[in-house]
Amino acid sequence: MLQSFIEDINCEYPKLGKVAIYKMFCSLKGKHKFLDSNILLQHSQVFRAFFI
User: Fold this and answer.
1) pLDDT tens digits, 26-52
2) Which of these, 6, 26, 32, 52, has the minimum number of CB atoms within 10 Å of its CB?
């Protein structure tokens, strides 16, 4: 799940780098006890909005 999330974001934003994406993922994980694909999907949209 994490790997595909990072790959998806990395494909769209190669300049961002996987480490930065992973750090954001970790900060999200701190906010949610359970990260599921729905939460990741919501946040991937947030990330896209943030980086555009």
Assistant:
1) 777 666 666 566 766 677 777 666 654
2) 52
